[in-house]
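#help-structures
NK: newbie question, is this the right format to request a structure? protein is HPr family phosphocarrier protein
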Amino acid sequence: MRVHDITLTRDFSSDDLKSISIKAGRYLSEIILLKPDAIIDVKSLLGMMLSPLKKGFVITIRTKGKDEEEALDFMCEIMDSRQSGDVVLKAGEMV
């Protein structure tokens, strides 16, 4: 299991959350976000949409499984992105 704490540097839009959930599905590992008020399965689109991620939130990213290190790297990169739209799927991009 891999665990990393991060402070969000921006708000995540519903499109960002949808894209993160879809891209997280590429990993075999379980990917969980821990907030003070919620435990979110990143691969669950509904779970992602029901728990907003806002600038200044401190979250814990937890990955567990065969590709946990790669999944954690992916999530850290996404959560640390500086601009809105960095994680949105581009037209024609494979899911």
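mod (FA): yep, format's fine, and the tokens are attached above. The two ends are 25 Å apart (CA to CA).
NK: thank you!
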